Amino acid sequence: MSDICRREHGAFDMTQGSPTRLILLFSLPLLVGNVFQQLYNMVDSVVVGQFVGSSALTAVGTGFPIIFLLSSLFIGFAMGATIMIAQYIGAGDQAAAARTVDTIYSALLVVILPLTVLGVAVSGPLLTLIRVPPEAFDQARVYCMVVLGGIIGSLGYNLNAGILQGLGDSKTPLVFLAVACGINVALDLLFVLAFHWGVFGVALATIIAQFCSWVFGIFFINRKYPFLHIRFFQMKLDRRLLGQVVRLGIPSAIQQCQFSVGILMMQALINGFGNDFSAGFTAANKIDTFAFMPIQSFTTATTTYVGQNIGAGRLDRVKTGARRALALGTLVCIAITAVVVPLRRPLLMLFNQEPAVVAAGEAYLLRVLTPMFILAMMFILGAVLRGAGATVVPMVASILSLWVVRVPAAYLLAHFFGPEELYWAYPIGWALGLAISAAAYLRGRWRGKAVVGQ
């Protein structure tokens, strides 16, 4: 590990050392952090599924895509800031990185109130639109309204994590998440088992824990990185930097939003086959989310790696890192599939033990996990393009793979072959997205998209 270098504050210098080691070392804390972040919703699902009932499990599962839809717009802009910070740090321009932090935090303070009001107002109509089963509707609406009412904690944490990752620090967000996840688990059990608050209790526990992780992050950044000091009432919005954040962030925001809408469309189709099938999908989707976490971690690490090396003008390292990340992603997907598929039944029974629910979950896992390496390659190539500043191509690849292929194919497969076969639409869509991303990478126009060169 002697060839791995760190900057003055202990963050990784991604412009020096082995690309493979850097991506792995940067990914490991991200992986554990992703586990903790997903535990927010997964613990909610387990607690209500075991102690409240299958309708509560469906409520939490169907509410999550709506919450993600409303939060994804700002998270996309935060991704734009992450790319800029990584490139500025790679170029050695701390002042520009500090101005970027001030700008994106100013934008958060402007949009948070209308975003919260919008989320609470539209959660009920969106649940109606996706045909939530009647027995789960009221609980799903309560879950959405409470979590969206306190969404500032989630947005703030993700913004802090993006700032730190752009700097090359992937370990610190893990500490905040570990503490917050412990708070969430304790409050879930307290609110559900002791206070009998059901779905409302797990939602309240979630927003309290998320708010704690955000506040912890602010204190740490102010102490460890004084050149970024976050002052809520002394921030300055740099219009030029905001324009760059918007340019980089809008494609990521659109990609996140359309992905969320696609999930809702799939959820509407799945909900039409009854509560058991929907509950099985919810449980299997949680397992799938955990299985894909290593790839998410490689994706984030690759974005930071590429951003810093683009900022430093090291295109040779960008290409080497892309090849290494693709190899790592493919190997990890094969290993995960070999472990999870044989254990699918006991894993599903952690959520619910009703035979119909377990059978529906198995249908998902068997058809989605096996070809997951296609999605991994699509995501990693998208991360390379995004880190270089070419954020439009991953957006186009995602939109076309989802709307041109996955959603139509899912409805057709369900109609002609039955609900269990609709899940083959996932790998079919991923294949198109991978083809688009690979063609864009090989064409090479991403080399001229760096922020620091403008």
Structure description:
The structure is a single chain. With 454 residues, the chain is mainly alpha-helical. The chain has one domain (19-448). Helix content is 80%, strand content 0%. The protein has 16 helices and no strands. It has helices at 19-51, 54-91, 94-129, 134-149, 152-167, 172-194, 198-224, 239-271, 275-291, 293-311, 315-340, 344-348, 355-368, 372-388, 392-417, 425-443. The longest helix is centred in the N-terminal third of the chain and has 38 residues, at 54-91. It is globular and about 55 Å long. The two termini are 35 Å apart.
Strand content: under 5%
Please tell me the total number of domains.
1
Shape type? globular
Number of H/I helices? 16
Biggest β-sheet description: none
Assembly level: single chain
Structural class: mainly alpha
Q: Rg from C-alpha positions?
A: 21 Å
The helix/strand series, from N terminus to C terminus, equals: HHHHHHHHHHHHHHHH
Q: How far is the N terminus from the C terminus?
A: 35 Å
Round the mean pLDDT to the nearest integer and report it: 85
Provide the low-confidence segments as ranges.
none
Strand tally is 0
Percent of residues in helical segments?
over 70%
